[in-house]
């Protein structure tokens, strides 16, 4: 009797302990950013059937990397053609970002702002590699309250909103998050012209635009730069170098940078009819870089790729006299994330999956497809860019020998003797 009571109380204590213990949550709720990504991905694939099951989107398996995005809008024959190109991500890492955390209910606006600040500091605001720009052109600076300017020593120019680069002035831009074209450009054709064995293409277009800017025939090339940290003069070979820049204050927030070694062009283009003259003025040394990006070599693989893409877009028009318009050009440093998910569907008659399967094989009830989504991290949002199906692991079927031989006894299988090989030992 005592033993029975002991067993009863022991079971009762175990039941109380198990009921009070917290059951582990094997399906934790998605963070809002991942939940929005899941909904956008499902909508992108057009999955609305009730018999589908979406799994995955585990933030523990999400990988983060940085890349550079190029966006262009080209107008040809009154048709606007948008393009978007992405550089390959060199490195993917497992990063615990604040947007991967489940948002707690009742969070105040100050706490949300702190999360956004931590998100920005955790690597979600990458910057472009330092690059050089050459005048004549104008730069509109955005979000540059703490930007410094060095010529080569630091100069207190206040809060700069606009910087004019005179002809011959070259600056190095560091810490920029994006660079974009402020006004559309009308560019001449034909695109493919040669001079001294050098292919013109984009280089001749850039040189034409440079001559046009020098002659004030067209407005100055205008760029918007977001978030630069510094504008510096390229390092001179000596202290007495003539590459030093001079700063001139034109208005509050507006300065002009000029070079003491400024070279005035003696030839200026006035219309599209003088394109041949522009080509004749070009020399092999001028073909080495792409104006106004003085740091990009003419043989750069990305530049050659852009030229091939542009030629394919223009088609036969690329070799004829005329013009086309560049409406938009934007280069930005982006943070990307890739994460896997799976879609499971119940099979029904008529789906076509069962066709071709032998009668002895068990018919599958579900089919599962695996995908990987590449998404752009934009602040606290994650926007899907590309969805790639993953190849499933091939499963080898193992079949019994009696199934292959038609359930025939091995004693009835004829014995076949191959011809003897005189080289066999």
From TrEMBL:
<feature type="signal peptide">
    <location>
        <begin position="1"/>
        <end position="21"/>
    </location>
</feature>
<keyword id="KW-0732">Signal</keyword>
<dbReference type="InterPro" id="IPR053283">
    <property type="entry name" value="TUNICAMYCIN_INDUCED_1"/>
</dbReference>
<protein>
    <recommendedName>
        <fullName>Tunicamycin induced 1</fullName>
    </recommendedName>
</protein>
């Amino acid at each position: 009797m005592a033993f029975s009571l002991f067993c009863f109380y022991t079971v009762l204590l175990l039941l109380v302990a198990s009921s009070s213990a917290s059951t582990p949550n094997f399906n934790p709720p998605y963070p809002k950013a991942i939940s929005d990504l899941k909904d956008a991905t499902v909508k992108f694939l057009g999955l609305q059937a009730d018999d589908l099951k979406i799994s995955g989107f585990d933030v523990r398996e999400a990988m983060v990397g940085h890349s550079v995005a190029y966006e262009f809008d080209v107008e040809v024959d009154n048709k606007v053609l948008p393009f978007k190109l992405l550089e390959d991500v060199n490195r993917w890492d497992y990063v615990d970002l604040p947007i991967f955390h489940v948002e707690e209910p009742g969070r105040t606006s100050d706490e949300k702002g702190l999360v956004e600040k931590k998100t920005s500091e955790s690597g979600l605001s990458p910057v472009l590699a330092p690059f050089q720009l050459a005048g004549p052109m104008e730069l509109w600076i955005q979000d540059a309250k703490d930007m410094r300017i060095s010529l080569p020593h630091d100069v207190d120019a206040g809060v700069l909103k606009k910087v004019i680069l005179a002809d011959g002035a070259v600056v190095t831009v560091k810490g920029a998050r994006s660079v974009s074209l402020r006004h559309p450009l009308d560019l001449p054709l034909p695109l493919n012209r040669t001079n001294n064995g050098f292919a013109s293409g984009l280089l001749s277009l850039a040189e034409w635009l440079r001559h046009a800017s020098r002659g004030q025939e067209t407005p100055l090339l205008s760029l918007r730069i977001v978030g630069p940290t510094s504008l510096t003069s390229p390092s001179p070979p000596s202290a007495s170098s003539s590459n030093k820049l001079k700063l001139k204050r034109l208005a509050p927030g507006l300065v002009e940078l000029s070079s003491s070694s400024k070279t005035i062009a003696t030839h200026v283009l006035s219309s599209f009819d003088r394109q041949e003259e522009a080509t004749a003025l070009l020399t092999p040394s001028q073909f080495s870089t792409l104006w106004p990006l003085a740091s990009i070599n003419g043989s750069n693989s990305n530049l050659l790729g852009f030229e091939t893409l542009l030629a394919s877009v223009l088609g036969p028009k690329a070799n004829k006299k005329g013009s086309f318009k560049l409406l938009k050009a934007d280069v930005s440093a982006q943070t990307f994330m890739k994460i896997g998910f799976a879609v499971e569907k119940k099979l029904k008659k008529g789906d076509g999956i069962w066709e071709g399967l032998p009668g002895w094989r068990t018919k599958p009830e579900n089919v599962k497809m695996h995908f990987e989504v590449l998404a752009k991290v934009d602040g606290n949002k994650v926007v899907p860019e590309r969805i790639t199906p993953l190849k499933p692991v091939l499963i080898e079927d193992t079949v019994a020998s009696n199934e292959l031989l038609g359930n025939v006894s091995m004693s009835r299988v004829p014995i076949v003797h191959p011809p003897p090989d005189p080289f066999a030992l």
